[in-house]
Structures are given as structure tokens and as C-alpha cells.
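Mods, move this if it's the wrong board.
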Amino acid sequence: MVEIMVGILAGTVLAITFSAMLIATYRSWENNRDSVKMQNDATLALALIGREIRKSSIEDLAINGVKFSEDPAARGERLDFSISTIRSNAVTIFRNGDRLVSSAGDFVVVEGGLDDFAVSFSEGPGVDVAFRLDGGNRVGQTTLRATFVPRN
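Not the wrong board. C-alpha cells:
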């Protein structure tokens, strides 16, 4: 009788240990999946913004409504395109809560988790774009920064 109880106890300990390992592995997989998704979204958003900047003339761009010719050191949280490849008319990319959206409202550049978005003109002339995404406690933050040179 004692041997059976010891066997049941050993089996229970093994089952609990295996379950705990399985749960920890699944949570780790979820965190990695969310982190990769956030990084992919950020990379895609940066590529899209970069494509728009490279296809634009420096005079087609404005930061918070200020063109490069007016203030080559302009900084802000809103990037205006007079001409856009996304739409036939002007487009503005700006922060709306934790999302990065276009002025059309139906085109979301970053769906959620946007913690910071900043654009500025740089020498060259170029446009510096930086944003930070916050994935919460599980994923952490991802910061992307790049400088794009518009066509002349």
C-alpha cells in the first residue's frame, strides 16, 4: 500500500513539474511572438515612412506645418506630405493616442503601442524619423530611428 502511495506521489510531482515547464515555455513563446510582431510592425512603418520621404521633394515635406526652407531645424510630431504615393492628395502622418495614423484616418501606420513619435529636419537635407513602441511588461520597448534623404 505504501509503495502505491509513493508511486502516486512521484507521478503527481512529475506531472506538476511537466505542467509548470509547459506553461513557462508557452508564455515564453507568446512573449517572443509579440516582440517579433511589434518589431516587424515598427520596421514596416519605418520603411513606409522612408519610402514616402524618398519619393518626395524636400519642399513637399513639412514638420508640424513648417517647411525646410522656413526652418531647417524644425522638430515635431507631425509629418506632412504635399504629394503622397499612398494617396493622390496630401497626407499627414501623426500620433493619435498610441497609434500612428495618416490624415485620411483609414490608413493606420502603427496599430497600437506607440509611445513616442518624433520627426526633424537634418543636414543634407534629410528627415530624421524616430519612434518608440511599448509592448507592455511582457515585451518591453522597441526604438527605431532612421534618416531619410528626399529626392531633390
